[in-house]
Amino acid sequence: MPQAATDYVPHSDADMRTMLAVVKATSVEELFADIPEDVRRREPLALPPGLSELEVLDELRRLAAANTPASALVSFLGAGIYDHYVPAIVDTIVGRGEFLTAYTPYQPERSQGVLQSIFEFQTAICELTGMDVSNASMYDGGTALAEASVLAGSHTRRGKVVLSAGVHPEYRQVLVTETAGYGPRPQVVDLQAGAATDLAALARVVGDDTAAVVVQQPNFFGALEDVAAAAQIAHAAGALLVVVADPVSLGLLEAPGRLGADVVIGEAQSLGNAMSFGGPGLGFMAVAKPLMRRIPGRLVGQTVDLEGKRGFVLTLQTREQHIRREKATSNICSNHALNALAALVYLSWLGREGLAELGLLCTRRAAYLRARLLELPGVTAYTEGPVFREFAVRLPLPAAQLVEALVPQGFLAGVPAGRFAGQFAGPAAAGLDDVLLIAVTEKRSRAQLDAFVAAVAAEVDHG
Amino acid sequence: MADAQGLPGMDRRTIYEKSCCGRRAYSLPATDVPEVPLDDLVPAGLRRQAPPRLPEMSEVDVVRHFTGLSTLNFGVDSGSYPLGSCTMKYNPRLNETTAQLEGFAGLHPYQPESLAQGAVELMWELGEWLAEIAGLARTTLQPAAGAHGELAGLLIIRAHHLAQGREPKRVIIPDTAHGTNPASVVMAGFTPAPVRSDARGGVDLEHLREVLAGGDIAGLMLTNPNTLGVFDENIVEIARLVHEAGGLLYYDGANSNAVLGISRPGDMGFDIVHFNTHKTFSTPHGGGGPGAGPIVVSAELAAYLPVPLVERAEDGRFFLDYDRPQSIGKMRTFYGNVGVLVRAHTYIRGLGPDGLRRVSETAVLNANYVMESLRGVLDVPYERRCMHEFVASATPLKEHGVRALDVAKRLLDYGVHPPTTYFPLIVDEALMVEPTETESREDLDRMVDVFRRIVQEAHDDPQKLLDAPVTMPVRRLDEAEAARHPVLRQRFPEDEEAGAC
User: Fold this and answer.
1) Are residues B335 and B396 in the same domain?
2) Is the N or the C terminus of chain B less surrounded, counting Cβ atoms within 10 Å?
3) If we measure between CA atoms, which residue out of B352, B145, B361 comes closest to residue B253?
């Protein structure tokens, strides 16, 4: 009978017979005799029948074609996930089976490839952030923030973490959810008009009960924060400063480590990884040396073999769940190694100068677009002051309405801030429905920016 | 023997050591907007003083560097990988093709839902399939890994009790459990309550009754088949006892590859199940991730699932539902490791119900085949049929001065990836073997033959094992030294004087 479904089992019927004889069974059924009859399933699972490879691909292509990916439009979407160009070599390297199909490197002598790449990734993150120690990566920016809060709580033995409202609202939600039963309690400090953190308000709530202060740079609305001032407030109270950083900005903006950060976390999808509907992302965490033994997740270290030759191993594993079980610093038992590899290949392609040049190009184009949009009647600045590649404007119409109106013209105008209205309070929370968050990567040419301004102008006029 | 020395004459320096000032691989579009002075864009005080010391390389140098590193690595594509509890099955390349379709890979999480209907449909469909496989009601695809699914599940258990005005603290965990279980329990604000295994490798019912009698029970976490590769025949009774004590049952799905379409956790009495798509549903491990750890819960617990939940409207439209007042909140940003979920969807769609059942039947046959073939070669402490994996012990080799670790290192020389060692903790010198269903009879015979040869070597010339590996790019590495004097990043010559770590 011709085979109707994909099947990756290699055995022929003859193989099965031979093997059953070895295990002294007359049927495969017999091997499951330990499963009590009342929990044995006799009828097949109610799933669609299997398909050949060609048919599966057709079905997945149909589903993919039912999407209009942002990457195929003139997109200004950001808010944590960015549409940067991914150079061709990234997929080539990441697709190599020796990397793709390997497990966590528990056998270092046979895993030097991934171990060395993680060591090099850790180095790149330390260089970008200005910190001493980076882990091998985490799930995403949101979970990295939750882990940073737990770390700060256990280091300071204090019960509160003070977060700027400029920290991505979804990161804050993840923190609240994941630490509902454990770790410091979060308290949010509002943004002031212009979208930067109200540092005076921050200083008022930070005290000797505060484990950490968290600010994001650039913040959710693109405003550049005074990280050094936040560090002073935190340190004066004996708290840690946690900075949520955008790695692409760190070719241009000062490294948080040089501004007083004790922990730097963030999302590094933008380094060589596809947007992929928001996941898998690439969380990262880097800390100052005194926190080395508290950092969650995998760490790769350099050592020597018995002949004195350099090699790399997973190290300081006594922090981890497979050794320490309930006393571990975290339950995390994986990292996003393949995404970290993509980021490393990307950073190696960009190099020392490329990252700065990329940042400058994004900054120039974002500044240009912002200036042009602010010339339009009724469009005003929401984010004030200098910005990197993202900023928010207030429109004379609901932002979601503008986004919808421009889709037929091939534009994704940005992320309507009203989507996160419940996560903001204070002066910056007023009229969020009319606020649009706009990101400009190197993919957006001047011609596209000009066409976009014209399209927005037409809508604003209608409004 | 295998030869993993890497490419002949390979340059083993790090990418930073290979960096050469002034070289570059990148190209970027020219500036086409007015060149505003930098100070007017970003004030000097906010700018970086010293650039990050990223490597400076030509493109071909970058490609050669990473191609070289790949030759020092070993994946399922390279050979047999019987790593217990990790399910290192073949990762079909079709999965890679579908995940990279621009219609999935190019989606932004905040693009209008109307432009992402295919992706939301895929997620909805996968959720329905996983619910059917688990024998439970509703799925969240958010958790990024098994351990992350555990935390989500435990937070749901917490929400369930709180909704009833209770706040029990203890979660029961067998001594065979994965280390993530107790770690997750603590992170969810609970206390682990250990329960012993009995002589057949299952939960000791007497001890379970004692622990339950202590009260304050939030739930129990169980892997079934467990990490000994043994199916707990008392599962229905265990579920009854825990439910009677007011607790919920969490199924650690790490070992689901044994029971697809054969026995469903929901039918066994579990309330919450996680699957590791990177184990059971063939998504690649990627050297440590990304995976995905979706969880499925009973209808009673669905209200607590994280937002957004994937829903289908009456008009057939798919949408992300945030309006769920009893939800625990958000376990991660956005919706899950969608790129990984596309691969899992592809796999299940291709295999169908018959293919999935054949996966488990073959996985169990392969494990029993290897176990039977190894009887008399290694000690197999639990004298019964195994499921998809089994635990052998290297204890008899101790008299030759050889341990499980040495067997593992010698396996590397023979081109077989070692099993999981020293786990589960209750077996001395444990070697946990999970061949998976995609290994052929010849692969398994070869694996057995290699074990046999190594045990023979342990008798005849144990030094061979103690010296192993000898064919790898490095000899045995000094892990104690790595922990004593941590070097966790590249040292640059100019840092040496400053004493940076």
Assistant:
1) no
2) N
3) B145
